[in-house]
Amino acid sequence: MHWTKPLGLLGVAVLAVLTVGALVAFVTQTLTGDAVTASIASIALLVVAIAGLAHVGGRSKRWRQNPYW
């Protein structure tokens, strides 16, 4: 076994822990405070905008003509 394989696993584990921690902090900060409704509405609009842009980009003729897809 090459010595970098355990380091790669450690890197992925650290990244997963940091991601979960950031998600927990984001949720706790968003759902507590004075502007909970505004925060949820902003997040919902952001999700809709990203989904819409992904849909428009996925349906483009140039993307469908790419031989790799």
Write the layout of secondary structure elements.
Elements lengths: L3 H27 L5 H23 L2 H4 L5
Commentary on this structure:
- With 69 residues, the protein is mostly helical.
- The protein has two domains: 1-29; 33-69.
- The protein is 78% helix and 0% strand.
- The chain is built from three helices and no strands.
- The protein has helices at residues 4-30, 36-58, 61-64.
- It is flat, with a radius of gyration of 19 Å.
- The chain starts with a helix and ends in a 5-residue tail after the last helix.
- The mean pLDDT is 84.
Question: How far from one another are the termini?
Answer: 35 Å
Low-confidence stretches: none
- Write down the domain tally: 2
Mean of the pLDDT scores? 84
Query: How much of the sequence is in beta strands?
Result: under 5%
The DSSP helix count reads 3
The percent of residues in helical segments reads: over 70%
Alpha-carbon Rg, integer: 19 Å
For the biggest sheet, the summary is: none
Element order: H for helix, E for strand: HHH
Please report the total strand number as a whole number: 0
Which secondary-structure class do the elements indicate? Answer: mainly alpha
Shape: flat
Entry keywords:
flat; transmembrane; 0% strand; mainly alpha; transmembrane helix; membrane; 2 domains; single chain
Can I get a quick summary?
Helices cover 78% and strands 0% of the residues. The chain has 69 residues and is mostly helical.
